[in-house]
Design brief:
The protein is mostly helical. The chain has 13 helices and 2 strands; from the N terminus they run ααααααααααββααα. Strands 1-2 form a two-stranded antiparallel sheet. The radius of gyration is 22 Å and the shape is globular. The two termini are 35 Å apart. Bound molecules: Phenylacetyl coenzyme A. Phenylacetyl coenzyme A (FAQ) binds at residues 41-42, 45-46, 49-50, 53, 80, 111, 113-114, 129, 133-134, 137, 140, 201-205, 210-213, 216, 222, 226, 276. Phenylacetyl coenzyme A is lined by residues 41-42, 45-46, 49-50, 53, 80, 111, 113-114, 129, 133-134, 137, 140, 201-205, 210-213, 216, 222, 226, 276.
């Protein structure tokens, strides 16, 4: 018996109508190969970012200044692991293989966010990562809760709830330090000076150099362009910096009454390109740590596979 080849014109029309009606594409629905590839690329990069993103703050767990700070930081870093796992699961619903994604991260075939290639030099960095890096992540990810692919959008809802806790803990830590000694205030300002520009770069290249934005917006995977979200982040951060009592390291940052937004300087796009290409201050360290952790965990994966095989065998008997 032969089955008729599916009519892709009809399938494409149903897909386009679903997107136009602001409904969700689900894993079993037909989707164009480009849509599937784009999502696997973005969701995998996002998952890798969460997993690599555990490292800059993770190194401070043993050096946290109090039991309370240690408990908060441990919870936050564990949350990032959880986010990575939801996102790898979302990528699996698109047909990606988890082991293959991990191999691509370790081999450098897939990217992760540039921001995690900068060093954390003092405990104030933990606060500034919470405030600025999680703040930027929220700004980027809240619109992704309306992304057209169901599992990604649903994962984002939970991720964003947890990221807001992360942002608040960072801000609260900075508030505490700003109410402390001159040396503590100087640590906070130094951390802000180092993390401000890399945080702006998290949103990606400017729109006229963002090859993926147009198609991703048309497919409603992305809901805003990189520059729109960067602007939103700057506008959100300026009053927070004022309340905190820190200055942002940008001499061109000024309120524009006409645009009802802040004008700001241009991030160093050459630096972003270099960090993405592997030449950031900590790229080698981050990937080496990830590779070692993967190798060290080989026996756990083998044991889990052997256990699952035995359970299957026993269930079949
Ligand atoms: N870093 O054409 P576009 C977090 C790449 S999670 C590295 O504009 P697109 C939580 C881009 O992939 C942070 N690569 O690309 C946390 C593309 O390369 P490709 C991660 C970057 O996809 C907090 C090329 O440049 N968040 O922080 C970067 O339309 C604290 C051209 O760019 C997400 O992944 C970059 N910054 O827009 C954890 C959110 N920017 O693949 C621990 C989801 C661009 O063509 C502690 N992702 N590239 O070879 C997105 O929203 C988008 O993928 C963008 C990039 C906006 C990142």
């Amino acid at each position: 018996m032969t089955t008729a080849a599916p009519d892709t014109t009809e399938l494409q029309r149903t897909f386009d109508d679903t997107i136009a009606a602001e409904q969700r594409i689900e894993p079993r629905d037909w989707m164009p190969e480009g849509y599937r590839r784009t999502l696997i690329r973005q969701v995998a990069q996002h998952a890798h970012s969460e997993i690599i993103g555990m490292q800059p703050e993770g190194v401070w767990i043993t050096r946290a200044p109090s039991l309370r700070r240690k408990a908060i930081l441990m919870a936050k870093v564990q949350d990032e692991a959880g986010h990575g796992l939801y996102l790898y699961s979302a990528a699996e619903t698109l047909g990606a293989d988890r082991a293959d994604l991990t191999a691509k991260l370790i081999d450098g075939a897939q990217k992760y966010s540039s921001i995690f290639n900068y060093p954390t030099l003092s405990y104030a960095d933990v606060g500034v990562i919470g405030w600025l890096v999680d703040g930027a992540a929220i700004c980027n990810q809240v619109p992704l809760c309306r992304s057209s692919f169901g599992p990604y959008a649903r994962a984002m809802i939970r991720v964003c709830k947890e990221e807001s806790f992360h942002q608040r803990q960072g801000y609260e830590l900075l508030m505490t330090m700003m109410g402390g000694t001159d040396a503590q205030r100087a640590m906070v300002q130094d951390a802000v000076d180092r993390w401000w520009w890399p945080s702006l770069m998290m949103f990606g290249p400017p729109d006229d150099r963002s090859p993926n934005s147009g198609q991703s917006m048309a497919w409603r995977i992305k809901r805003h362009t990189n520059d729109e979200l960067r602007q939103r982040f700057v506008d959100m951060s300026v009053p927070q910096a004022q309340a905190l009592g820190v200055s942002l390291p940008d001499s061109q940052l000024i309120w524009n009454e006409q645009r009802k937004s802040h004008d700001f300087g241009t991030p160093d796009w050459a630096e972003l390109a270099a960090v993405i290409a592997g030449d950031g201050p900590c790229n080698v360290e981050r990937i080496t740590n990830r590779r070692n952790a993967h190798d060290d965990g080989a026996w756990v994966r083998e044991a889990a596979m052997a256990f699952a095989a035995r359970e299957r065998q026993e269930a079949g008997q």
